[in-house]
Amino acid sequence: MFDFDALSHAIADQTVLCVGDLMLDEFVYGEVSRISPEAPAPVIAVQRSEINIGGAGNVARNIAALGAKCIFVGLVGEDDAGATLKNALAQEPLIEALLVTDSSRPTTRKVRFVSEHFSTHMLRADWELAAPASAAIEKQLIDTILPQLARVDIVLLSDYAKGVLTARVIRNVIDAAKKLGKRVIVDPKSANFAIYRGATLLTPNRKEFVEATRSRADSDINIATAAQEAMILADCAAMLVTQSEHGMTLVPRDGEPIHVPALPVRVRDVSGAGDTVAAMLAVALAAGADWEAALRAATAAAAVAVSKKGTAVVTPSELRRRILPHAFLAAEEKIVASTELNAQLADWRKQQLRIGFTNGCFDILHPGHVKVLTAARATCDRLIVGLNSDASVKRLKGEGRPVQDERARAEVLAALEAVDLVVIFEEDTPLNLITQIAPATLVKGGDYTREQVVGHEVVAANGGEVILIDILQGHSTTSLVERARSGQS
């Protein structure tokens, strides 16, 4: 799991080299209400149109939208579409576009006609030459790419099979990157994964994976088996198979497969969703995220992308809303009774979300509490905080406590974005609550040992883990109360 804020800050310091097939994406939106009298074809009454940077250029846009710098190398023709793309990329402050011009080919252009009312694609028209670049253009591409490797933290190859990523270009880039210790992510198009040999991570979709491995890929086990064989051929460290509404499965060469389900979302347009996933993986891995954290961030980014129309980018604020959805609820909406908890737990488990738990009195919230709560949220997808009731605190802490009543304490906790739900319990310990929740992670401060943590047996029996967080020295509610009552600053 990961700390979203820490990841976001780290992403801002990263630079990604993105190489691939640049396209001009046009979307023509309108209403269809009749059939043409000239032929049995629908007539679209055009209402508006949009022009976007597409293909690998959309990957670059997503990298920049997420806050990282991007050096982008692509190919255009000597035409109006190419000029439009050059001007559009020049407006992106975080993208440094190094475009090679090939006068022998058109700039790849795709025009999609979309029914505004039904939000469905009716027709797509393509202008392109889907053929490998000539030897002379290959050399220009390689000569442009290789000097940039020393400037970047990670390399991303976005292959749309339009001619930029020839076998020669791929080989030169991967070999040079490996010599400099740079990781390479490939969003592949070729069914021959061997041409990407030596890359760190390959990210085929299910259709591409089935074609390349000749496997059914109809279960996580079958995907993992076929991926292990494919990784030997491709000599890569991991393979990620994206499966649309069925989520994503990442198979590390050394380690257990990781499957993350797709987040529930109203799908409006899947155009460019793969670009968003590749971009998110690149910036997250460059920023130091592990496989699972990068995968979960990519899943959240994909959910944002498909909820938008057209070729869309994802911003950190949109990603935050998807990763921390309860951060944007009013505090009172996060406070639930234990009797109301089961419905929420069932919904989260249906989504295969990882549920975490921590507890305490939280009488006067201080930096030590905030550190533990933030760290606890980083271990899971949803964090539930058990809060001792007023009667429970009085029994544990003595007369004069709590300083604040349970409602006030619950509202302060619920106001924190790290907290998804607050549940008040009457007992002296949260054992019954832990049994009800059966969390995947049980988090406490490092002033406990694992055996001292209430509920550790329950969590272990359900396959979960107990995580102890180093506490901040010098922060204690009891000492704060004593100092306040004695008049000390």
Automatic annotation (TrEMBL):
<dbReference type="GO" id="GO:0005524">
    <property type="term" value="F:ATP binding"/>
</dbReference>
<keyword id="KW-0067">ATP-binding</keyword>
<dbReference type="InterPro" id="IPR011914">
    <property type="entry name" value="RfaE_dom_II"/>
</dbReference>
<dbReference type="GO" id="GO:0005829">
    <property type="term" value="C:cytosol"/>
</dbReference>
<feature type="domain" description="Carbohydrate kinase PfkB">
    <location>
        <begin position="15"/>
        <end position="315"/>
    </location>
</feature>
<dbReference type="Pfam" id="PF01467">
    <property type="entry name" value="CTP_transf_like"/>
</dbReference>
<comment type="similarity">
    <text>In the C-terminal section; belongs to the cytidylyltransferase family.</text>
</comment>
<feature type="domain" description="Cytidyltransferase-like">
    <location>
        <begin position="357"/>
        <end position="451"/>
    </location>
</feature>
<comment type="function">
    <text>Catalyzes the ADP transfer from ATP to D-glycero-beta-D-manno-heptose 1-phosphate, yielding ADP-D-glycero-beta-D-manno-heptose.</text>
</comment>
<dbReference type="InterPro" id="IPR011913">
    <property type="entry name" value="RfaE_dom_I"/>
</dbReference>
<feature type="active site">
    <location>
        <position position="275"/>
    </location>
</feature>
<comment type="pathway">
    <text>Bacterial outer membrane biogenesis; LPS core biosynthesis.</text>
</comment>
<dbReference type="GO" id="GO:0009244">
    <property type="term" value="P:lipopolysaccharide core region biosynthetic process"/>
</dbReference>
<dbReference type="InterPro" id="IPR014729">
    <property type="entry name" value="Rossmann-like_a/b/a_fold"/>
</dbReference>
<dbReference type="GO" id="GO:0097171">
    <property type="term" value="P:ADP-L-glycero-beta-D-manno-heptose biosynthetic process"/>
</dbReference>
<dbReference type="InterPro" id="IPR029056">
    <property type="entry name" value="Ribokinase-like"/>
</dbReference>
<feature type="region of interest" description="Ribokinase">
    <location>
        <begin position="1"/>
        <end position="329"/>
    </location>
</feature>
<dbReference type="GO" id="GO:0033786">
    <property type="term" value="F:heptose-1-phosphate adenylyltransferase activity"/>
</dbReference>
<protein>
    <recommendedName>
        <fullName>Bifunctional protein HldE</fullName>
        <ecNumber>2.7.1.167</ecNumber>
        <ecNumber>2.7.7.70</ecNumber>
    </recommendedName>
</protein>
<keyword id="KW-0418">Kinase</keyword>
<keyword id="KW-0548">Nucleotidyltransferase</keyword>
<comment type="similarity">
    <text>In the N-terminal section; belongs to the carbohydrate kinase PfkB family.</text>
</comment>
<dbReference type="Pfam" id="PF00294">
    <property type="entry name" value="PfkB"/>
</dbReference>
<comment type="pathway">
    <text>Nucleotide-sugar biosynthesis; ADP-L-glycero-beta-D-manno-heptose biosynthesis; ADP-L-glycero-beta-D-manno-heptose from D-glycero-beta-D-manno-heptose 7-phosphate: step 1/4.</text>
</comment>
<comment type="subunit">
    <text>Homodimer.</text>
</comment>
<keyword id="KW-0547">Nucleotide-binding</keyword>
<keyword id="KW-0808">Transferase</keyword>
<keyword id="KW-0119">Carbohydrate metabolism</keyword>
<dbReference type="GO" id="GO:0016773">
    <property type="term" value="F:phosphotransferase activity, alcohol group as acceptor"/>
</dbReference>
<dbReference type="InterPro" id="IPR011611">
    <property type="entry name" value="PfkB_dom"/>
</dbReference>
<dbReference type="InterPro" id="IPR002173">
    <property type="entry name" value="Carboh/pur_kinase_PfkB_CS"/>
</dbReference>
<feature type="region of interest" description="Cytidylyltransferase">
    <location>
        <begin position="357"/>
        <end position="489"/>
    </location>
</feature>
<dbReference type="GO" id="GO:0033785">
    <property type="term" value="F:heptose 7-phosphate kinase activity"/>
</dbReference>
<feature type="binding site">
    <location>
        <begin position="205"/>
        <end position="208"/>
    </location>
    <ligand>
        <name>ATP</name>
    </ligand>
</feature>
<dbReference type="InterPro" id="IPR004821">
    <property type="entry name" value="Cyt_trans-like"/>
</dbReference>
<keyword id="KW-0511">Multifunctional enzyme</keyword>
<dbReference type="InterPro" id="IPR023030">
    <property type="entry name" value="Bifunc_HldE"/>
</dbReference>
